[in-house]
Each structure stands twice: as structure tokens, then as C-alpha cells.
């Protein structure tokens, strides 16, 4: 999303947080002195400064003691209400809670910040601050290279260029290209992908970037181009698509790649805006056990079942709500490794439930929507839902067009489906891998065995 809009929306969100509470939560930090240099600076540097520094969309810079002190009461309230760090909107009271990538502060870190603010914000010995981090711009680094220690991507796909006019409406650039024409290296045989990451190609491209998706298109037996599997998806807060350790996607030399890029004018012409998709491969000759479908969309609403165009039933009245629900029956066994919601500015919450073939009903997760940040919530291995074929998936989305929704630009409007943020969408993405019957039964049995072992170990340690 462009930075001007981000900055305005973040200010609105932070102001809402300030007025949402007026009293501090109870604290249990001990009486020892808490100082900025010894206790607070490491937390801020690790969790805040990636965004809150010069040259970013964040509304304030938090790189020095003076800067942090100036916003200390707001920081305290934001972490106590878990508005910051952003990006984690899983309802903590419902559904699965075991994830690999939860960026939330610990209770102890939150208490530490609150104690520091309440006790007068002592600086401590500022000569003992942690060494400053040399931050890189979004187009200068690969997150997977840093986080996974994999080294740089094995291949880089660069989109065809597009010039974004200085002043216009939203721009969609959706070209098709032969894979070999957009790769930075030769591809002479089929290779299996284990992860991809999307970034802007340069700083100017980053300013106009809203979101981007890519998919592979593969010729069928008759030589006709078909719709291949999705390859990558990126938006504010989401750069990576990382597949399970035993799964991947195949890319072939004669594949085509489809780009779907949403770009937004920023008041000056941006020539040759592009994205890059870094591709990490399995070792040559190695084939993963499963082909993953990865992110699979389940729309809320009944348009699909009625044979109507997408979101025909999405119509939100002024100052009102709409709840949409879609039902889907799995024709294959599925292992789910992630969940991600998608709505726009009128989003309220989304929930994914399942009804198993034996009649049991379970809430997998509820996502309290925030359009400022898009997160793929990645399940811990033992928490990945295992869904037998015949399971019914229920994708529910509540849309909020009232003045109480702080993201709502105009509650007086009727709202319909639109790809722009002023319109609405409502679908939930499950990261899915289809599992054959016999292997699925073995997977369920192994899961039960490992959970029993874990419970016994936990009981022994009590």
C-alpha cells in the first residue's frame, strides 16, 4: 500500500488505541530499576525499529531514547492492548493458538515497558545501548535469506516493467511471460520449489506497491495454456510463501508466469515499476514427498454455489453490517499449514470452522481483521489441522460499514465487491497439501502418538 495512505491509517489506528483505554493494566514486574538502556532499547530495536525509522511509512521514529520517551505513554498502551507490534490478529480466546511466526511481545516484555513508563522512564547508562542495526530498504534484502540462513535465492523472477502515472486511479498490471524470459538464470529441467519471496525491484517500485500475486501456467496435453497453481502472494506485512518441509511446487522450463500487480499513483510518475520474486529450490534431483497447493481461497458467501459471478451477494448497507458464509466439502484429505484472511476497509472479523465426517464441529481460528497488515499465520507442526475428505469447511466473514469501524472511510456509502480497497472482498486462505488415504491415516496416528508423548512429558515436569 502506498505510504501516504499507510501513514494516515496508522495515525487513525493509534489515536483509536489512545482513546480505547485510560488506565494501565496491573503490573507484576519486581522493584528493580528498569532503564531504557538495559531493558527497553533491546525490545524496541528488535520489535519496532524495522518500521519506526527514517524513510518508512510509520508515523514516528523510535531510534533514540529521546524519541522513545516522547511517545512512551502511547507505546505502553499500544503494547498492552497488543496493537503493536502489528500483524497478529488471531483471536486469542478461540481456536488453535500454536503458531511458528507470532511476533507478539511476551507478557514479561509488556510488563517491562509498562513498569519503565510508570516509574519515570529512566535512561540508564546510554553508553551501554545495543549496537545500532544497519537496516536495509525493502528492495535490498531477502527475508528468507536472513531468517532461514539459506543464502540468496537460487533464481530471481523479475516482472515486466510498468509505468505508473503521477495521478490516476488504482493501476493493475497483469502480463503473462515465459518463465525463461523473466528468470535471471537458465532453467533446463523441472525443479522443485520450497519457498518464494516477493519484494519491490527498487525504492520507487516500493512506493507504488499495493500487492502482487503470481501464478504458473502450464500447457496441457493439447498444447493449450492452462491455469497453473499460485506461486507467490505479497502485500503489506507479507513477503514470503514457505512450503512445508516435505512439500513443494514444480516449475518447468516451458511454463508461463502470470503477474497480477496492484499499483497506486503517488503524485509523481514512476517509470518501470517492477517486482522481484526470489525462488529457493530443493537440491537438484530431490523431489519432495507431496505437491502442495499452498494458499487455497475459500470465499464467504453463496455466489459460487448459485453459479453467480464472484461476490454477487456482497452488499453492505450504510451504517450497517453484513455477514457472509461459504460452505465447502473437501473431496480429498488435507493437511493445513497456514491460515490468512482477506478483506478490505470494512472488514470486521473472519472465522474458519469445520464439520468433520463424524459430525464433530470445531472452530479452527477467528481473525480480528485489520487492513493495515497482512499476515500468513503458520501453524506449529503438531497444530496443523488434519482434515479428512468429506469435511465441511465454513468460511464466515463479518463486514462492518458503521462509524465504529476506525478503518471505514465513509459509512454513508453502500459497499459492493471491488478489487480496490474502497470496495470489499471476503475470503480466507488455507495453506493446504492433499494427502492420499493411507498416508493420511498414518499421519493422524503419528500425530496422536506425538501428542500423547508430549502430554506425558509435560505431566512429568509438573
TrEMBL record:
What keywords sit in the KW lines?
A: Heme, Iron, Metal-binding
Q: Region labeled Disordered — which residues?
A: 217-237
Do you know which SUPFAM superfamilies this protein is assigned to?
Cytochrome c
Q: Does the keyword Heme apply?
A: yes
| Start and end residues of each Cytochrome c domain | 35-121
InterPro entries hit by this protein: Cyt_c-like_dom (IPR009056), Cyt_c-like_dom_sf (IPR036909)
Keyword Cell membrane among UniProt keywords? no
Q: From the UniProt record, which GO molecular function terms apply?
A: electron transfer activity; heme binding; metal ion binding
Protein name, as recorded: Cytochrome c domain-containing protein
Q: What is the lineage of its organism?
A: unclassified sequences, metagenomes, ecological metagenomes
Amino acid at each position: 500500500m502506498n505510504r501516504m495512505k499507510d501513514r494516515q491509517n496508522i495515525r487513525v489506528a493509534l489515536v483509536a488505541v489512545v482513546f480505547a483505554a485510560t488506565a494501565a493494566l496491573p503490573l507484576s514486574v519486581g522493584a528493580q530499576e528498569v532503564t531504557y538502556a538495559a531493558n527497553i532499547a533491546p525490545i524496541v530495536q528488535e520489535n519496532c525499529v524495522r518500521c519506526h525509522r527514517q524513510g518508512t511509512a510509520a508515523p514516528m521514529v523510535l531510534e533514540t531514547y529521546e524519541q522513545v520517551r516522547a511517545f512512551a505513554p502511547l507505546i505502553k498502551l499500544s503494547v498492552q492492548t497488543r496493537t503493536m507490534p502489528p500483524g497478529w490478529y488471531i483471536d486469542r480466546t478461540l481456536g488453535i493458538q500454536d503458531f511458528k511466526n507470532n511476533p507478539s511481545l511476551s507478557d514479561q516484555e509488556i510488563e517491562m515497558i509498562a513498569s519503565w513508563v510508570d516509574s519515570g522512564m529512566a535512561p540508564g547508562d546510554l553508553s551501554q545501548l545495543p549496537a545500532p542495526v544497519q537496516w536495509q530498504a525493502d528492495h535490498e534484502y531477502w527475508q528468507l535469506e536472513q531468517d532461514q540462513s539459506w543464502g540468496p535465492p537460487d533464481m530471481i523472477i523479475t516482472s515486466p516493467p510498468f509505468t505508473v502515472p503521477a495521478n490516476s486511479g488504482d493501476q493493475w498490471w497483469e502480463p503473462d511471460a515465459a518463465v525463461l524470459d523473466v528468470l535471471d538464470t537458465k532453467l533446463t529441467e523441472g525443479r522443485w520449489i520450497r519457498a518464494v519471496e516477493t519484494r519491490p525491484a527498487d525504492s520507487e517500485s516500493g512506493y507504488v506497491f499495493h500487492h502482487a500475486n503470481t501464478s504458473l501456467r502450464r500447457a496441457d496435453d493439447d498444447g493449450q495454456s492452462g491455469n497453473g497453481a499460485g506461486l507467490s502472494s505479497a502485500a503489506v506485512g507479507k513477503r514470503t510463501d514457505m512450503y512445508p518441509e516435505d512439500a513443494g511446487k514444480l516449475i518447468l522450463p516451458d511454463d508461463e508466469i502470470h503477474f497480477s500487480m496492484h499499483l497506486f499513483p503517488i503524485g509523481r510518475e514512476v517509470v518501470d515499476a517492477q517486482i522481484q520474486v526470489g525462488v529457493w529450490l530443493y537440491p537438484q534431483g530431490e523431489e519432495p514427498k507431496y505437491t502442495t497447493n499452498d494458499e487455497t481461497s475459500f470465499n464467504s458467501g453463496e455466489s459460487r454455489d448459485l453459479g453467480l459471478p464472484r461476490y454477487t451477494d456482497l452488499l453492505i448497507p450504510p451504517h450497517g453490517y453484513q455477514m457472509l458464509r461459504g460452505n465447502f466439502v473437501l473431496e480429498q484429505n488435507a493437511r493445513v499449514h497456514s491460515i490468512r484472511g482477506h478483506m478490505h476497509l470494512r472488514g470486521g472479523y473472519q472465522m474458519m470452522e469445520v464439520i468433520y465426517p463424524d459430525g464433530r464441529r470445531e472452530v479452527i481460528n477467528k481473525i480480528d481483521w485489520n487492513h493495515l497488515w497482512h499476515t500468513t499465520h503458520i501453524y506449529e507442526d503438531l497444530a496443523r489441522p488434519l482434515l479428512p475428505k468429506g469435511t465441511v469447511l465454513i468460511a464466515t466473514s463479518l463486514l462492518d460499514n458503521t462509524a465504529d469501524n476506525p478503518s471505514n472511510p465513509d459509512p454513508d456509502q453502500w459497499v459492493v465487491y471491488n478489487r480496490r480497497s474502497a470496495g470489499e472482498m471476503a475470503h480466507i486462505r488455507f495453506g493446504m497439501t492433499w494427502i492420499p488415504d493411507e498416508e493420511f491415516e498414518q499421519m493422524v496416528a503419528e500425530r496422536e502418538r506425538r501428542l500423547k508423548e508430549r502430554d506425558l512429558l509435560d505431566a512429568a515436569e509438573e
